[in-house]
Amino acid sequence: MGMRLDEEFGADRVLQIETDDEENEADDYKIEEDDDDSGSDFTLHSPVHEPSHSQIGPHDSPTWPQSYRQSMDMFTGVTPPSLSFLRGSSFLRSQTTPTPQPSICKPLISSLRSDKEEVPTLTHPTRLSVVSSARYSALELPPSQQCSYTQSVLNAINALCGIGILSTPYALKEGGWCSLFLLLLFGIITFYTGILLKKCLDSSPGIETYPDIGQAAFGMLGRIFIAVALYAELYSSCIEYLIMMSDNLGAIFPSARMVFAGIHLDSYQMCAIISTLVILPTVWLRNLSLLSYISAGGVIALIVVVLCLLWVGAINEVGFHSGGTALNIAKLPVTIGLYSFCYGSHSVFPNIYSSMKEPSRFPSVLLISFSIAFFSYLGVAVCGFLMFGENTSPQFTLNLPAKLITSKVAAWTVVLTPVTKYAITITPVAFGIEEFLPSRQLRTYGVSILIRTILVFSTLVISLTVPYFGSVMSLIGSSLVMLVSLILPCACYIKLSKDRITRFQLAACTSIIVVGVVSAVIGTYSAVTSMAN
Protein backbone atom coordinates (compact mmCIF):
# COMPACT_ATOMS: atom_id res chain seq x y z
CA MET A 1 0.00 0.00 0.00
CA GLY A 2 1.24 3.52 -0.84
CA MET A 3 2.42 5.76 1.93
CA ARG A 4 3.21 9.46 1.92
CA LEU A 5 6.78 10.35 2.79
CA ASP A 6 5.78 13.53 4.54
CA GLU A 7 3.51 11.58 6.83
CA GLU A 8 6.14 8.97 7.66
CA PHE A 9 9.00 11.32 8.49
CA GLY A 10 9.10 14.41 10.67
CA ALA A 11 8.73 17.87 9.19
CA ASP A 12 12.09 18.87 10.64
CA ARG A 13 14.00 16.37 8.55
CA VAL A 14 15.33 17.03 5.09
CA LEU A 15 14.41 14.64 2.31
CA GLN A 16 16.51 14.54 -0.81
CA ILE A 17 15.93 12.70 -4.06
CA GLU A 18 18.93 11.61 -6.06
CA THR A 19 19.14 9.95 -9.46
CA ASP A 20 22.05 8.06 -10.97
CA ASP A 21 23.08 8.51 -14.60
CA GLU A 22 24.48 4.99 -14.76
CA GLU A 23 21.18 3.48 -13.63
CA ASN A 24 18.81 5.96 -15.26
CA GLU A 25 17.50 3.37 -17.70
CA ALA A 26 16.35 1.26 -14.78
CA ASP A 27 14.42 4.27 -13.48
CA ASP A 28 15.34 3.74 -9.83
CA TYR A 29 14.91 6.27 -7.11
CA LYS A 30 17.29 6.66 -4.26
CA ILE A 31 15.81 8.38 -1.26
CA GLU A 32 18.13 9.53 1.45
CA GLU A 33 17.30 10.87 4.86
CA ASP A 34 19.86 12.40 7.16
CA ASP A 35 18.79 12.36 10.78
CA ASP A 36 20.61 15.09 12.69
CA ASP A 37 19.59 13.62 16.03
CA SER A 38 20.83 10.07 15.55
CA GLY A 39 23.25 10.52 12.68
CA SER A 40 21.76 7.49 10.94
CA ASP A 41 21.04 7.24 7.22
CA PHE A 42 17.93 5.77 5.69
CA THR A 43 18.11 4.64 2.06
CA LEU A 44 15.46 3.15 -0.19
CA HIS A 45 15.99 1.79 -3.71
CA SER A 46 12.79 1.45 -5.69
CA PRO A 47 12.12 0.51 -9.30
CA VAL A 48 8.89 1.60 -10.92
CA HIS A 49 5.77 -0.42 -11.60
CA GLU A 50 5.64 -2.12 -14.94
CA PRO A 51 3.13 -0.39 -17.22
CA SER A 52 -0.15 -2.17 -17.61
CA HIS A 53 -3.49 -0.95 -18.90
CA SER A 54 -3.90 2.66 -17.70
CA GLN A 55 -1.21 2.50 -15.05
CA ILE A 56 1.57 5.04 -15.46
CA GLY A 57 4.69 3.24 -16.56
CA PRO A 58 8.39 4.05 -16.65
CA HIS A 59 8.53 4.78 -20.34
CA ASP A 60 5.61 7.19 -20.54
CA SER A 61 6.16 9.10 -17.29
CA PRO A 62 7.40 12.64 -17.96
CA THR A 63 8.72 14.46 -14.97
CA TRP A 64 7.16 17.74 -16.05
CA PRO A 65 5.39 19.19 -14.19
CA GLN A 66 6.63 17.59 -10.98
CA SER A 67 5.97 20.72 -8.94
CA TYR A 68 2.26 20.68 -9.78
CA ARG A 69 1.00 18.76 -6.75
CA GLN A 70 2.55 20.87 -4.01
CA SER A 71 2.10 24.22 -5.76
CA MET A 72 -1.59 23.50 -6.37
CA ASP A 73 -1.98 22.37 -2.76
CA MET A 74 -0.98 25.90 -1.80
CA PHE A 75 -3.52 27.22 -4.31
CA THR A 76 -6.31 25.27 -2.60
CA GLY A 77 -5.20 26.41 0.85
CA VAL A 78 -4.45 22.94 2.24
CA THR A 79 -0.93 23.75 3.46
CA PRO A 80 0.12 25.01 6.90
CA PRO A 81 1.29 28.61 7.29
CA SER A 82 4.99 29.40 6.98
CA LEU A 83 6.82 32.10 5.11
CA SER A 84 10.23 32.69 3.61
CA PHE A 85 11.74 34.61 0.72
CA LEU A 86 13.38 33.25 -2.39
CA ARG A 87 16.73 33.61 -0.75
CA GLY A 88 19.60 31.30 -1.44
CA SER A 89 17.96 28.87 -3.84
CA SER A 90 15.06 28.56 -6.22
CA PHE A 91 12.66 25.69 -6.61
CA LEU A 92 15.04 23.75 -8.80
CA ARG A 93 18.36 24.81 -7.39
CA SER A 94 20.77 21.88 -7.52
CA GLN A 95 22.81 20.98 -4.50
CA THR A 96 25.36 18.81 -6.27
CA THR A 97 27.08 18.58 -9.63
CA PRO A 98 24.61 19.36 -12.44
CA THR A 99 24.22 17.33 -15.57
CA PRO A 100 24.28 18.82 -19.04
CA GLN A 101 21.39 16.85 -20.49
CA PRO A 102 17.80 17.60 -19.46
CA SER A 103 15.27 14.82 -19.63
CA ILE A 104 11.54 15.06 -20.09
CA CYS A 105 10.85 11.41 -19.28
CA LYS A 106 11.42 9.90 -15.88
CA PRO A 107 9.30 7.59 -13.74
CA LEU A 108 6.56 9.20 -11.68
CA ILE A 109 5.51 6.14 -9.71
CA SER A 110 7.82 3.79 -7.89
CA SER A 111 7.45 0.56 -5.96
CA LEU A 112 9.78 -1.17 -3.54
CA ARG A 113 10.92 -4.81 -3.69
CA SER A 114 11.48 -6.63 -0.43
CA ASP A 115 11.03 -10.42 -0.48
CA LYS A 116 7.29 -10.35 -1.11
CA GLU A 117 6.82 -7.97 1.78
CA GLU A 118 4.66 -4.92 1.19
CA VAL A 119 6.65 -1.75 1.70
CA PRO A 120 6.05 1.97 1.18
CA THR A 121 5.56 3.31 -2.32
CA LEU A 122 6.52 6.76 -3.50
CA THR A 123 3.23 7.77 -5.08
CA HIS A 124 4.12 11.40 -5.65
CA PRO A 125 7.75 12.50 -5.59
CA THR A 126 8.09 15.48 -3.32
CA ARG A 127 10.44 17.02 -5.84
CA LEU A 128 12.11 15.59 -8.88
CA SER A 129 13.98 17.52 -11.54
CA VAL A 130 13.98 17.51 -15.30
CA VAL A 131 17.72 17.13 -14.88
CA SER A 132 18.61 13.45 -14.62
CA SER A 133 21.41 13.49 -12.07
CA ALA A 134 20.94 15.99 -9.30
CA ARG A 135 19.83 16.24 -5.70
CA TYR A 136 17.26 18.79 -4.63
CA SER A 137 16.01 19.85 -1.26
CA ALA A 138 12.45 18.72 -0.65
CA LEU A 139 11.61 21.60 1.66
CA GLU A 140 11.14 24.37 -0.92
CA LEU A 141 7.49 23.41 -1.23
CA PRO A 142 5.42 22.48 1.81
CA PRO A 143 4.39 18.84 2.10
CA SER A 144 0.89 17.80 1.20
CA GLN A 145 -1.44 17.71 4.20
CA GLN A 146 -4.28 15.37 5.02
CA CYS A 147 -7.52 17.34 5.23
CA SER A 148 -10.61 16.63 7.25
CA TYR A 149 -14.04 16.53 5.65
CA THR A 150 -14.84 20.07 6.79
CA GLN A 151 -11.53 21.42 5.49
CA SER A 152 -12.13 19.72 2.14
CA VAL A 153 -15.57 21.30 1.86
CA LEU A 154 -14.15 24.74 2.66
CA ASN A 155 -11.33 24.26 0.14
CA ALA A 156 -13.81 23.27 -2.55
CA ILE A 157 -16.08 26.23 -1.78
CA ASN A 158 -13.08 28.57 -1.79
CA ALA A 159 -12.07 27.23 -5.19
CA LEU A 160 -15.56 27.47 -6.70
CA CYS A 161 -16.78 30.76 -5.26
CA GLY A 162 -14.40 33.21 -6.87
CA ILE A 163 -14.42 36.41 -8.85
CA GLY A 164 -16.92 34.98 -11.33
CA ILE A 165 -19.70 36.04 -8.96
CA LEU A 166 -18.99 39.69 -9.80
CA SER A 167 -20.16 39.13 -13.38
CA THR A 168 -23.25 37.01 -12.86
CA PRO A 169 -25.65 40.04 -12.90
CA TYR A 170 -24.02 41.16 -16.15
CA ALA A 171 -24.35 37.64 -17.59
CA LEU A 172 -28.07 37.69 -16.72
CA LYS A 173 -28.48 41.06 -18.38
CA GLU A 174 -26.77 39.85 -21.56
CA GLY A 175 -28.55 36.51 -21.86
CA GLY A 176 -31.95 37.25 -20.36
CA TRP A 177 -33.88 35.51 -17.59
CA CYS A 178 -33.99 32.16 -19.36
CA SER A 179 -30.20 32.08 -19.38
CA LEU A 180 -30.33 31.17 -15.68
CA PHE A 181 -31.12 27.66 -16.88
CA LEU A 182 -27.58 27.59 -18.32
CA LEU A 183 -26.19 28.48 -14.90
CA LEU A 184 -27.94 25.42 -13.47
CA LEU A 185 -27.02 23.23 -16.45
CA PHE A 186 -23.32 24.04 -16.26
CA GLY A 187 -23.42 23.46 -12.52
CA ILE A 188 -24.86 19.96 -13.02
CA ILE A 189 -22.45 19.12 -15.83
CA THR A 190 -19.34 20.30 -13.99
CA PHE A 191 -20.45 18.47 -10.84
CA TYR A 192 -20.69 15.29 -12.92
CA THR A 193 -17.30 15.85 -14.54
CA GLY A 194 -15.84 16.41 -11.07
CA ILE A 195 -17.09 12.93 -10.15
CA LEU A 196 -15.51 11.61 -13.36
CA LEU A 197 -12.16 13.03 -12.28
CA LYS A 198 -12.47 11.07 -9.03
CA LYS A 199 -13.11 7.89 -10.98
CA CYS A 200 -10.08 8.62 -13.15
CA LEU A 201 -7.95 9.07 -10.03
CA ASP A 202 -9.17 5.70 -8.73
CA SER A 203 -8.49 3.92 -12.02
CA SER A 204 -4.79 3.33 -11.39
CA PRO A 205 -2.34 3.50 -8.45
CA GLY A 206 -0.24 6.63 -8.20
CA ILE A 207 -2.59 9.03 -10.00
CA GLU A 208 -2.99 12.11 -7.83
CA THR A 209 -3.20 15.19 -10.06
CA TYR A 210 -4.90 16.27 -13.26
CA PRO A 211 -1.69 15.91 -15.32
CA ASP A 212 -1.37 12.37 -13.93
CA ILE A 213 -4.84 11.62 -15.32
CA GLY A 214 -3.82 12.95 -18.73
CA GLN A 215 -0.70 10.81 -18.65
CA ALA A 216 -2.59 7.67 -17.70
CA ALA A 217 -5.15 8.25 -20.43
CA PHE A 218 -3.10 9.61 -23.32
CA GLY A 219 0.54 9.14 -22.36
CA MET A 220 3.20 11.80 -22.20
CA LEU A 221 1.50 14.10 -24.71
CA GLY A 222 -1.71 13.97 -22.70
CA ARG A 223 0.13 14.98 -19.54
CA ILE A 224 1.88 17.88 -21.21
CA PHE A 225 -1.26 19.09 -22.99
CA ILE A 226 -3.33 19.11 -19.81
CA ALA A 227 -0.52 20.77 -17.84
CA VAL A 228 -0.23 23.53 -20.44
CA ALA A 229 -4.01 24.04 -20.41
CA LEU A 230 -4.05 24.24 -16.60
CA TYR A 231 -1.16 26.68 -16.49
CA ALA A 232 -2.82 28.81 -19.19
CA GLU A 233 -5.99 28.91 -17.08
CA LEU A 234 -4.03 30.02 -14.01
CA TYR A 235 -2.10 32.64 -15.98
CA SER A 236 -5.27 34.08 -17.52
CA SER A 237 -6.85 34.24 -14.06
CA CYS A 238 -3.98 36.48 -12.98
CA ILE A 239 -4.80 38.79 -15.86
CA GLU A 240 -8.37 38.96 -14.58
CA TYR A 241 -7.16 39.73 -11.06
CA LEU A 242 -5.14 42.66 -12.37
CA ILE A 243 -8.00 44.02 -14.48
CA MET A 244 -10.41 43.68 -11.56
CA MET A 245 -8.04 45.41 -9.15
CA SER A 246 -7.35 48.23 -11.61
CA ASP A 247 -11.04 48.78 -12.45
CA ASN A 248 -12.04 49.11 -8.82
CA LEU A 249 -9.06 51.28 -7.88
CA GLY A 250 -9.89 53.47 -10.83
CA ALA A 251 -13.47 53.76 -9.58
CA ILE A 252 -12.22 54.76 -6.12
CA PHE A 253 -9.86 57.36 -7.61
CA PRO A 254 -11.57 58.37 -10.88
CA SER A 255 -9.66 61.62 -11.32
CA ALA A 256 -6.19 60.09 -10.96
CA ARG A 257 -3.94 61.07 -13.85
CA MET A 258 -0.25 60.96 -14.58
CA VAL A 259 2.15 62.06 -17.30
CA PHE A 260 5.35 59.99 -17.38
CA ALA A 261 8.05 60.60 -20.01
CA GLY A 262 5.51 62.31 -22.22
CA ILE A 263 3.04 59.41 -21.88
CA HIS A 264 -0.39 60.27 -20.55
CA LEU A 265 -1.84 57.67 -18.20
CA ASP A 266 -5.53 57.65 -17.33
CA SER A 267 -6.90 56.36 -14.03
CA TYR A 268 -7.15 52.74 -15.19
CA GLN A 269 -3.61 52.64 -16.61
CA MET A 270 -2.15 54.35 -13.58
CA CYS A 271 -3.96 52.02 -11.20
CA ALA A 272 -2.89 48.98 -13.23
CA ILE A 273 0.76 49.95 -12.86
CA ILE A 274 0.35 50.66 -9.14
CA SER A 275 -1.46 47.34 -8.66
CA THR A 276 1.37 45.51 -10.40
CA LEU A 277 3.99 47.13 -8.18
CA VAL A 278 1.98 46.22 -5.08
CA ILE A 279 1.57 42.59 -6.18
CA LEU A 280 5.15 42.11 -7.40
CA PRO A 281 6.86 41.55 -3.99
CA THR A 282 4.37 38.81 -3.12
CA VAL A 283 5.50 36.65 -6.06
CA TRP A 284 9.09 36.78 -4.80
CA LEU A 285 8.11 34.71 -1.77
CA ARG A 286 9.53 31.18 -1.95
CA ASN A 287 7.07 29.56 0.42
CA LEU A 288 3.58 30.88 -0.11
CA SER A 289 1.86 28.82 2.56
CA LEU A 290 0.97 31.85 4.64
CA LEU A 291 -0.53 33.64 1.64
CA SER A 292 -2.49 30.50 0.79
CA TYR A 293 -3.80 30.45 4.35
CA ILE A 294 -4.89 34.08 4.00
CA SER A 295 -6.30 33.68 0.50
CA ALA A 296 -8.40 30.79 1.79
CA GLY A 297 -10.39 33.58 3.41
CA GLY A 298 -11.69 34.36 -0.06
CA VAL A 299 -15.03 32.93 1.06
CA ILE A 300 -15.18 35.61 3.76
CA ALA A 301 -14.34 38.31 1.20
CA LEU A 302 -17.09 36.94 -1.03
CA ILE A 303 -19.61 37.11 1.81
CA VAL A 304 -18.60 40.70 2.58
CA VAL A 305 -19.07 41.81 -1.04
CA VAL A 306 -22.43 40.04 -1.36
CA LEU A 307 -23.69 41.55 1.90
CA CYS A 308 -22.65 44.99 0.68
CA LEU A 309 -24.65 44.43 -2.50
CA LEU A 310 -27.74 43.37 -0.58
CA TRP A 311 -27.36 46.23 1.88
CA VAL A 312 -27.21 48.80 -0.91
CA GLY A 313 -30.27 47.27 -2.58
CA ALA A 314 -32.42 46.76 0.50
CA ILE A 315 -31.37 49.56 2.85
CA ASN A 316 -29.92 52.32 0.71
CA GLU A 317 -31.44 54.23 -2.18
CA VAL A 318 -30.99 51.79 -5.07
CA GLY A 319 -33.78 49.28 -4.44
CA PHE A 320 -34.97 46.45 -6.70
CA HIS A 321 -36.77 47.00 -10.01
CA SER A 322 -38.27 44.45 -12.38
CA GLY A 323 -37.28 44.38 -16.03
CA GLY A 324 -35.15 42.59 -18.59
CA THR A 325 -35.82 40.28 -21.51
CA ALA A 326 -36.71 36.60 -21.44
CA LEU A 327 -33.91 35.52 -23.78
CA ASN A 328 -31.32 37.35 -25.85
CA ILE A 329 -29.93 34.89 -28.38
CA ALA A 330 -27.43 37.36 -29.83
CA LYS A 331 -25.66 37.86 -26.49
CA LEU A 332 -26.06 34.30 -25.25
CA PRO A 333 -22.47 33.25 -26.16
CA VAL A 334 -21.14 35.89 -23.75
CA THR A 335 -23.40 34.52 -21.03
CA ILE A 336 -22.20 30.98 -21.71
CA GLY A 337 -18.58 32.01 -21.19
CA LEU A 338 -19.34 33.93 -17.99
CA TYR A 339 -21.41 31.14 -16.46
CA SER A 340 -18.87 28.47 -17.33
CA PHE A 341 -16.09 30.55 -15.77
CA CYS A 342 -17.94 30.34 -12.45
CA TYR A 343 -17.43 26.57 -12.30
CA GLY A 344 -13.82 26.47 -13.50
CA SER A 345 -12.16 24.77 -10.51
CA HIS A 346 -11.43 21.30 -11.86
CA SER A 347 -7.70 21.91 -11.88
CA VAL A 348 -7.68 21.64 -8.07
CA PHE A 349 -10.33 18.97 -7.52
CA PRO A 350 -7.81 16.10 -7.87
CA ASN A 351 -5.59 17.77 -5.27
CA ILE A 352 -8.49 18.17 -2.86
CA TYR A 353 -9.46 14.52 -3.36
CA SER A 354 -5.88 13.26 -2.92
CA SER A 355 -5.52 15.30 0.27
CA MET A 356 -8.66 14.00 1.97
CA LYS A 357 -8.47 11.73 5.01
CA GLU A 358 -11.76 10.20 3.85
CA PRO A 359 -11.64 10.23 0.03
CA SER A 360 -14.84 8.18 -0.19
CA ARG A 361 -16.74 11.31 0.92
CA PHE A 362 -15.48 13.38 -2.00
CA PRO A 363 -18.82 13.24 -3.92
CA SER A 364 -20.61 14.84 -0.97
CA VAL A 365 -17.88 17.49 -0.82
CA LEU A 366 -18.62 18.34 -4.43
CA LEU A 367 -22.38 18.25 -3.88
CA ILE A 368 -22.22 20.70 -0.97
CA SER A 369 -19.73 23.06 -2.61
CA PHE A 370 -21.55 23.11 -5.97
CA SER A 371 -24.91 23.67 -4.27
CA ILE A 372 -23.56 26.61 -2.27
CA ALA A 373 -21.85 28.02 -5.34
CA PHE A 374 -24.97 27.73 -7.53
CA PHE A 375 -27.31 29.42 -5.06
CA SER A 376 -24.72 32.14 -4.40
CA TYR A 377 -24.33 32.84 -8.11
CA LEU A 378 -28.09 32.71 -8.64
CA GLY A 379 -28.88 35.07 -5.79
CA VAL A 380 -26.26 37.64 -6.75
CA ALA A 381 -27.24 37.47 -10.42
CA VAL A 382 -30.92 38.12 -9.69
CA CYS A 383 -30.37 40.80 -7.03
CA GLY A 384 -27.70 42.61 -9.00
CA PHE A 385 -29.74 42.72 -12.18
CA LEU A 386 -32.90 43.82 -10.37
CA MET A 387 -30.88 46.64 -8.80
CA PHE A 388 -29.08 47.98 -11.87
CA GLY A 389 -31.07 46.66 -14.83
CA GLU A 390 -29.68 47.43 -18.27
CA ASN A 391 -26.92 49.55 -16.72
CA THR A 392 -25.34 46.53 -15.05
CA SER A 393 -21.55 46.52 -15.43
CA PRO A 394 -19.32 43.43 -15.87
CA GLN A 395 -18.42 43.93 -12.18
CA PHE A 396 -21.40 44.86 -10.05
CA THR A 397 -19.09 46.68 -7.61
CA LEU A 398 -18.67 49.35 -10.29
CA ASN A 399 -22.42 50.00 -10.15
CA LEU A 400 -22.53 50.63 -6.41
CA PRO A 401 -22.96 54.35 -5.53
CA ALA A 402 -19.48 55.68 -4.84
CA LYS A 403 -20.59 57.95 -1.98
CA LEU A 404 -21.83 55.10 0.21
CA ILE A 405 -19.55 53.60 2.84
CA THR A 406 -20.92 50.17 1.98
CA SER A 407 -19.79 50.65 -1.60
CA LYS A 408 -16.30 51.62 -0.49
CA VAL A 409 -16.08 48.52 1.70
CA ALA A 410 -17.05 46.32 -1.25
CA ALA A 411 -14.63 48.07 -3.61
CA TRP A 412 -11.65 47.83 -1.24
CA THR A 413 -12.45 44.18 -0.51
CA VAL A 414 -12.32 43.45 -4.23
CA VAL A 415 -9.08 45.44 -4.54
CA LEU A 416 -7.30 43.63 -1.70
CA THR A 417 -8.34 40.10 -2.68
CA PRO A 418 -5.92 39.82 -5.65
CA VAL A 419 -3.01 40.84 -3.41
CA THR A 420 -3.28 37.47 -1.65
CA LYS A 421 -4.52 35.37 -4.55
CA TYR A 422 -2.28 36.56 -7.40
CA ALA A 423 0.99 35.05 -6.12
CA ILE A 424 -0.71 31.76 -5.20
CA THR A 425 -2.14 31.56 -8.72
CA ILE A 426 1.00 32.46 -10.69
CA THR A 427 3.44 30.36 -8.63
CA PRO A 428 2.51 26.98 -10.21
CA VAL A 429 3.22 28.54 -13.61
CA ALA A 430 6.59 29.86 -12.42
CA PHE A 431 7.54 26.49 -10.92
CA GLY A 432 6.58 24.76 -14.16
CA ILE A 433 8.89 27.08 -16.12
CA GLU A 434 11.73 26.64 -13.63
CA GLU A 435 11.68 22.89 -14.16
CA PHE A 436 13.09 23.49 -17.65
CA LEU A 437 16.17 25.37 -16.45
CA PRO A 438 18.99 23.19 -17.84
CA SER A 439 21.98 23.97 -15.63
CA ARG A 440 22.92 24.75 -12.07
CA GLN A 441 24.13 28.22 -13.05
CA LEU A 442 20.58 29.13 -14.09
CA ARG A 443 18.93 27.75 -10.95
CA THR A 444 19.64 30.81 -8.86
CA TYR A 445 17.78 33.30 -6.75
CA GLY A 446 18.15 35.96 -9.45
CA VAL A 447 16.76 33.79 -12.24
CA SER A 448 13.77 32.76 -10.14
CA ILE A 449 13.02 36.40 -9.37
CA LEU A 450 13.43 37.25 -13.06
CA ILE A 451 10.98 34.56 -14.19
CA ARG A 452 8.32 35.70 -11.74
CA THR A 453 8.87 39.36 -12.55
CA ILE A 454 8.53 38.71 -16.28
CA LEU A 455 5.30 36.79 -15.70
CA VAL A 456 3.85 39.61 -13.60
CA PHE A 457 4.72 42.35 -16.09
CA SER A 458 3.44 40.24 -18.98
CA THR A 459 0.03 40.13 -17.28
CA LEU A 460 0.26 43.91 -16.90
CA VAL A 461 0.89 44.36 -20.63
CA ILE A 462 -2.07 42.15 -21.51
CA SER A 463 -4.37 43.86 -19.00
CA LEU A 464 -3.46 47.23 -20.49
CA THR A 465 -3.99 45.91 -24.02
CA VAL A 466 -7.38 44.28 -23.38
CA PRO A 467 -8.83 46.00 -20.29
CA TYR A 468 -12.21 44.32 -20.67
CA PHE A 469 -13.08 42.33 -17.56
CA GLY A 470 -16.28 40.77 -18.90
CA SER A 471 -14.90 39.88 -22.33
CA VAL A 472 -11.69 38.37 -20.94
CA MET A 473 -13.68 36.34 -18.42
CA SER A 474 -16.00 35.13 -21.15
CA LEU A 475 -12.97 34.15 -23.27
CA ILE A 476 -11.42 32.19 -20.40
CA GLY A 477 -14.71 30.48 -19.63
CA SER A 478 -15.47 29.61 -23.24
CA SER A 479 -12.04 28.29 -24.15
CA LEU A 480 -10.03 27.09 -21.17
CA VAL A 481 -12.79 26.23 -18.68
CA MET A 482 -14.78 24.36 -21.31
CA LEU A 483 -11.66 22.37 -22.11
CA VAL A 484 -10.50 21.68 -18.55
CA SER A 485 -13.90 21.25 -16.87
CA LEU A 486 -16.06 19.64 -19.55
CA ILE A 487 -14.16 18.15 -22.47
CA LEU A 488 -11.02 16.67 -20.91
CA PRO A 489 -12.63 14.93 -17.89
CA CYS A 490 -15.02 13.11 -20.19
CA ALA A 491 -12.35 12.24 -22.75
CA CYS A 492 -10.00 10.90 -20.06
CA TYR A 493 -12.75 8.88 -18.41
CA ILE A 494 -13.79 7.29 -21.70
CA LYS A 495 -10.18 6.34 -22.41
CA LEU A 496 -9.44 4.98 -18.94
CA SER A 497 -12.76 3.14 -18.55
CA LYS A 498 -13.27 1.88 -22.07
CA ASP A 499 -13.52 -1.73 -20.87
CA ARG A 500 -16.15 -1.11 -18.22
CA ILE A 501 -17.99 2.08 -19.20
CA THR A 502 -21.77 1.71 -19.56
CA ARG A 503 -23.76 2.88 -22.54
CA PHE A 504 -25.38 5.59 -20.47
CA GLN A 505 -22.00 6.88 -19.26
CA LEU A 506 -20.62 6.82 -22.79
CA ALA A 507 -23.65 8.72 -24.11
CA ALA A 508 -23.45 11.25 -21.27
CA CYS A 509 -19.74 11.85 -21.75
CA THR A 510 -20.09 12.14 -25.50
CA SER A 511 -22.94 14.62 -25.14
CA ILE A 512 -20.93 16.72 -22.67
CA ILE A 513 -17.96 16.75 -25.04
CA VAL A 514 -20.20 17.94 -27.88
CA VAL A 515 -21.75 20.65 -25.68
CA GLY A 516 -18.27 21.72 -24.56
CA VAL A 517 -16.86 21.91 -28.07
CA VAL A 518 -19.84 23.82 -29.50
CA SER A 519 -19.92 26.23 -26.54
CA ALA A 520 -16.16 26.73 -26.73
CA VAL A 521 -16.22 27.61 -30.43
CA ILE A 522 -19.21 29.95 -30.22
CA GLY A 523 -18.20 31.57 -26.94
CA THR A 524 -14.56 32.07 -27.91
CA TYR A 525 -15.51 33.67 -31.23
CA SER A 526 -17.99 35.99 -29.50
CA ALA A 527 -15.48 37.04 -26.82
CA VAL A 528 -12.69 37.71 -29.31
CA THR A 529 -14.93 39.77 -31.61
CA SER A 530 -16.25 41.80 -28.67
CA MET A 531 -12.69 42.70 -27.64
CA ALA A 532 -11.71 43.53 -31.21
CA ASN A 533 -14.64 45.90 -31.75
Keywords for this entry:
533 residues; Amino acid/polyamine transporter I; 16 helices; 8 strands; 6% strand; transmembrane helix
Briefly say what this structure is.
The chain has about 525 residues and is mostly helical. It has helices at about 5-10, 70-75, 150-160, 170-175, 180-200, 210-250, 265-285, 290-295, 300-315, 330-340, 350-355, 360-390, 405-435, 445-465, 470-495, 505-530, and strands at about 15-20, 30-35, 40-45, 85, 135, 260, 265, 285.
- Overall mean pLDDT stands at 77
Tell me the domain tally. 1
Give me the strand/helix succession: HEEEHEEHHHHEEHEHHHHHHHHH
Q: Tell me the distance between the termini.
A: 58 Å
- What's the CATH architecture name? Up-down Bundle
Number of helices: 16
Radius of gyration, in angstroms, nearest whole number: 24 Å
